[in-house]
From TrEMBL:
It comes from Halomonas heilongjiangensis. Keywords: Nucleotide-binding. Belongs to the YajQ family. PANTHER family: UPF0234 PROTEIN YAJQ. GO terms for molecular function: nucleotide binding. This is Nucleotide-binding protein C1H66_09470. GO terms for cellular component: cytosol. The keyword Nucleotide-binding applies. Nucleotide-binding protein. It comes from the Bacteria.
Length: 161
């Protein structure tokens, strides 16, 4: 029986490259001359550090653009509130990977509500969809990519016939 997996992942190496590019752009931008500002990537968390709050907003936009340019969907960014302390401002951006239980249940419910002849089951951080016809599986893909779909970057992996 044909099947595929629904996952939410990104290439960590591309994320690292995007953060490096953002650092280089901040160092060469005119509006950041003489300002101590930097990006740092620790695992799946990018730390933005600058002198004032409005610079963090500009840095966040630079990071978003660099991630998109490297093929990483900006919807995977979980932006935390900025922390202001004296002469420094810090902000954390968590790059979310994988589907948590709530999101996976939402996807399964949406598939079941569509009345397509497929089965969806949660397997850890992914959802496996199986059906008798390839057309039904492609209809599920179109359903999840379409309007009203989850606000997550979804990829469809492991398509088997």
């Amino acid at each position: 029986m044909p099947s595929f997996d629904i996952v939410s992942e990104f290439d960590k190496h591309e994320a690292s490259n995007a953060v490096d590019q953002a650092n280089r752009e901040i160092q060469t931008r005119f509006d950041f001359k003489g300002v101590t500002a930097s990006f740092e990537l620790n695992g799946e968390t990018a730390s933005l550090e600058a002198e004032v709050d409005f610079q963090l907003k500009q840095m966040l936009e630079v990071l978003r653009n660099k991630l998109i340019a490297r093929g990483i969907d900006a919807r995977c960014m979980d932006i935390k509130d900025p922390v202001l302390s004296g002469v420094r401002a810090r902000q954390e951006v968590v790059l979310k990977q994988g589907l948590d239980q709530k999101e996976a249940k939402e996807i399964v419910k949406r598939i079941k509500d569509s009345k397509l002849k497929v089965q969806a089951q949660i397997q850890g951080e992914k959802v496996r969809v199986t059906g008798k016809k390839r057309d039904d599986l492609q209809a599920v893909m179109a359903l999840l990519k379409g309007e009203g779909g989850p606000d997550l970057p979804l990829q469809f992996d492991n398509f088997r016939d």
